[in-house]
## 1
Amino acid sequence: MKLLSNALLCFLLAACSAASKNEFQSGMNEPTPQAMKYGSRWSLLLTSRDGSLTRSMIVEFSAAPAESCSSGEFRKLKILSEYPARDAVFLGEAAYEVVGAAILIDLSANICDAGYELRGRISETGVEGIHQPVSMFGGDVVGRFYGMPLE
């Protein structure tokens, strides 16, 4: 599993270009890539600022509505597996919102002022973005995340 995750990370780092927050926002005006659909399973890898792998997840994008403290149309994100297991930073239920080619994943969507967000841009081959804790006081970017559909 570790070897597969490292190989996937290398592939994604080579395939995805660095994107600024403005690029993610501009993705909202683009069509949603066909790879992003209800029921699809994706592998997500989170890295630190220095590029070290910090978390790997297999998720499924559900069509079911989710509770969220944020405005928007959030759907439930099923976390099928993750390593390492959740800790105090990742509390609550995970949810996501897709607007065009932009995605927001909140790993603590139902807990107000204590979220952990992944913000990125979706393409036909994967997703790339940033991750950070969020609260009423803001939050610093912790690193990047990369993902690709498994089907």
## 2
Amino acid sequence: MTDRRPGAPGAPVPPVNDRLAVIFGPRRRFRPAPPESWRAIEGSVGVTLPTDYKEFVDGYGDATVFGHLGIPHPGTENGLADFIETFGPAFLGWQDPWGRTPPDPELARMIPWALHNGNGDICLLDPPVGESGWSVVVAYRHFPELSVYPGTVTDFLELLHEGRDLPREWPQLPAAWQSEESSLI
């Protein structure tokens, strides 16, 4: 008998939008970020962002998911570009609070994409190097460590939804979606 659950060896992988819909229900946002917004962000970080991440943000961004994970959107005031500009240096500052050494290039290439609203942990995208694929990295504000989750943002969100391999001290909560009050999208 073949295991046909998503993610099981040999199981067909459903399209990203279907996988996100299983977690969060139908799209909540119907105006995707303008392509020029994505291009500007990708130009500033120096890499093309993963398609699944952009689909997630376009469909569910400018919101809080799982009751604690803030997802900025590039099409809003103080959105994703400001978030990256603020939390990229904050993350690097946690690694060397006194600024005594230049940032580690392995860490400096990581791109902030979400913030734990309860404890300040930062979720980052770690771009592929060589043959590796994307990874999600959780930088803990209160602990001097990082957790690496190989795979896509969608893979990471599925882990949170299923309560498997949760980041340190993160609660397992329903995948509730809550729009930001100031959202215009």
## 3
Amino acid sequence: MIDYKNRIRRAAQAADIAHQALTDRDHRLARTAAAVSAAHLELAREARAAQPMEEDWRGAPNVRSALTPTIPREILLGLLTETCGDSNGAQFADVLELADSRGLLTTWTVSELRALCGRYGIPVRESVKVNRRNRIGVHRADLAAVIAESGTSED
């Protein structure tokens, strides 16, 4: 049986493939890879739920980490990139809509998404203009800088 950490790694790999496919404008492969990524995340969630809860240094259950919503950074960057497309940026409402359509982040709020971006060092702007609407999100330039930075840090 594959443990949840390996499922998350596989989901991240599939998200990378989806991102590359979008860059290459291979939308069919991108959709397939995104679906594989979502499936691995769902299996990871189930595998994690089946394991006993981690305990912190005092021996008490680590409830805070269990309640804090999170997804891998690569998946989040993939969702932001796909939502951004050719526009000025990715508005969080649109990111959550896309994620929900894939079975991810189904109960998340804009506040939770904003907090997760903060934890991952992704700059959030109060006003990103997309389709004549100004909403909270991540600007294209900031997203490109974060992706470039993460690409060079892995080498």
## 4
Amino acid sequence: MEKVLFLSLGNRDLQLPRNASIPIDIFNKHFELGSMDTGENYVLKKTDKQFLAHSEAIYELYEELAGLVCFPMVDATLEEVGRDLAQIVIITTQQEPADSQDCQYVALFLKKWLEQNGFSVVYKPITFPPIHLDQLMDFYNELYDQYARYQIFFGNSGGTPDMRAATHMAGMFRNIRFVTLQARTQEASQKNFRSQEKRILQHIVDNMLKVYDYEGVKNLPVSDRVKEKCDEALDLYNLKTNIVRGDEGFGEKSKKAIALLLENMKICFHQGRYADVIGRIFRIEEAVGQYLLYTELKQREGISDQDKVYRIDSKGKKKADKSFEQTIANGESSEAMYLHYFQEEFTFIISPKEEKVWYFVKHPDVPMKAGKNTFFFLFSALKKHQDLYQIFMRLNDNYAKVNKLTTLRNKSYLGHGFNGVSESDIEEITGNFLEFYNELKALLEKVLNIVIEPIFDDLNEQIKNL
């Protein structure tokens, strides 16, 4: 990778050695004794607040003074980074309107001197007051983007404190190597702020993982291993995982899927995706009902080893030609299944269209139809799984025809409307959400006979430790 050197200049960069021989009038008019940082060298006058005028005069005398003045900080920086540079970028202030401390003539003097020594040089002036940090950040970000394909070295000992601060902040996560000089000895060393960047990045990642923002973490300057873990989490979140395999029996597959859905619901809540929380509650209740119906049919020997539902055909023969999933997804097939295995729980009326409409015997106002409510009324009639359904009864207002959960879902974009869903809407139904989550988790672990692992929290810890 080619290298570029950025140089930030200030009013100490152009110096005059003590032993330099220049006309006394030029010396007296434009130079003064430097500070401890410049040793015995002289610097351009700034105590009279006319630095810009002095530097302009010296620039006009370039041909006479080029071999006499020196740039010790620039020399030390070049010695540190090497001279095999694709380009040198000089940065200093050239404000509009002009300020007496602007350094553009120092920059122009150095540019000409460097070009005469074989370097390719670009001058990038700062045209606004160098105390406006936001503008400085924009300036350096644009500059860094322009040279993104290069390895950037930055000699930023010159310039204002705000300029130096902005170079560092804009340079975060860009692998820029800053060349710092020890003020009195002019010894150079390189820093890339990797340890500081790592701490800042860790802080950002930790906060994003609190809301399980794996896609956001992937877009940070993190390692490929972290990105792989985030992809793994996203696949789990979207059930694109071998944990829930299509070749497994319905029972095992649905238990694993329910566990993932529960953890998925928790993530939605932490991310503030409250409408999706409602959707997950609905799907968990439905999936639990499907699983319990499956196990009930298994106990009644109504499902084959291939997870197909036994039925009696028109010739009175026992057949199993549709899977459990296909059966419950088809209105006619599911009705036939219910009537075959649970006939004593249903009765019918003749509709105005002279069709049989089936109702629960113990709940004559509840028709048999697809959906999570049918599972509740079936197991209520069978007097099974009442502990688990207590929590679903609370969510569904005892399965009233009009209840808050169904209304909230139907009026949101997950149902038939465009209403928003808030955290308070959720907790009006669930109570304290995390307490509800823990209660539901404990009940599901008991009913499904599994341990529901905090799989996303475990992944978060793995990502933090990479």
